[in-house]
Amino acid sequence: MADQAALEQKYAPVGAELTSFSDVGAKMEGIFMEGDKLALKCSVPSKVVSNRIWDIIKRVDPSYSDFDIQMQVTGGDAQPYTIKSGDTLSAVCLRFYGHANLYPKVAEANHADANNIPVGTTIQLPLLS
């Protein structure tokens, strides 16, 4: 029988990442055992955020054979994001994609100057491969 506490500790980075997106609508709805697997039920606002959660799952355990995620995407592929004071496009890309160097693609998709996006501007973070 799998140890729920041990699995929760193993997959804690997944829960932490999910929680970090609560400001854009991600919600953890439950964590429980299903047989020998730890199951996480959650909803995320976009495919962009879903992909980021999957990146963390695969970093924790590439096979994730002891983990089951029941993730509902409540929005579309792209993630809207409103620029806040202190934001840089590279920092936003690091948060949503795990790579700061994707900022030129995001700037291009938004027809924006990567070095001058005014606070309060809502950009669309596209699904990038």
**CATH hierarchy: architecture of the largest domain:** 2-Layer Sandwich
The name CATH uses for the topology of the largest domain is: Histidine-containing Protein, Chain: A
| Count of discrete alpha- or pi-helical segments spanning 4 or more residues | 5
Please give the largest β-sheet: 3 strands, mixed
Oligomeric state: single chain
Whole-number total of structural domains? 2
Q: What's the N-to-C terminus distance? A: 38 Å
Strand-pairing-aware structural class: alpha+beta
Strand content: 15-25%
Number of strands: 5
How large, in whole angstroms, is the Cα Rg? 16 Å
Order of helices and strands: HHEEHEEHHE
CATH secondary-structure class of the largest domain: Alpha Beta
Shape: elongated
Kindly state the mean pLDDT as a whole number?
A: 96
Instruction: Show unreliable segments.
Output: none
Helix content: 25-40%
Widest sheet, order of strands: 1-2-3
